[in-house]
Amino acid sequence: MLTTKEQKRVAEEISNSSNVIGKGTMLEGNIETHGNIRIEGRVHGHIKSKSKIALGNGSQVEGNITAQNADIEGEVKGKIEIAELLVLKSTAVVYGDINTGKLVVEPGAIFNGTCKMGVVKDLKISENGNPVRPQPQEARLN
Fold first, then answer.
1. Cα–Cα separations (whole angstroms), residue 134 to 22, 99, 128
2. Which residues, 6+ apart, have CB-to-CB distance to 120 below 8 Å?
3. For the segment 9-40, what is each residue's pLDDT rounded down to a tens digit?
4. How far apart are the first and last CA of the chain?
5. What string of DSSP letters covers 38-67?
């Protein structure tokens, strides 16, 4: 059993970890991580991160993106939910709805969809490989 101090250290190591999907790489499937992730290739699936997602110029994602923060230079076809700051760089192309705390759009970026700002739900991500399932809500009658 890990002590509280050890649990904090492990959690910090996980959140500081980085992942890269390189150019020329095609990934089919969903990605979930507590750390940062950079996509340079293609992903056909949903991407979730408790930290930051960065999509490089020329990257392509067909699926939903959920993260704390994100920088997008590539193409996204799907819903984007960002808790804090979403930056659409000048080469970004987004086809889908955006829900974010704050949004920066550089000149030249293309965005086709709806955008909601300021109201973002908490990020839920699996713990130890087990999916997080919403807890049933109790109905109350007055």
1. 33, 20, 17
2. 81, 82, 83, 99, 100, 101
3. 655 665 567 889 999 999 999 999 999 999 99
4. 44
5. EE-SEEES-EEEEEEEEE-TT-EEES-EEE
Give the 3-state secondary structure of residue 5. helix
Q: What are phi and psi of 12, to 5 degrees?
A: -65, -40
Which amino acid is it at 104?
V
Q: Are 78 and 63 in contact (CB under 8 A)?
A: yes
pLDDT in tens, 94-134: 999 999 999 999 999 999 999 999 866 666 666 555 545 44
Q: Tell me phi and psi for residue 133, to 5 degrees.
A: -110, 140
- Across 1-142, the runs of DSSP E, i.e. the strands, are 18-21, 26-28, 31-33, 36-39, 42-44, 47-55, 60-62, 65-72, 75-77, 80-88, 93-95, 98-105, 110-112, 115-117
pTM summary value: 0.76
Side chain identity at residue 73, one-letter code? E
User: Using CA atoms, how far apart are residues 34 and 31, in angstroms rounded to an integer?
Assistant: 10
100 within 8 A of 81, measured Cβ to Cβ: yes
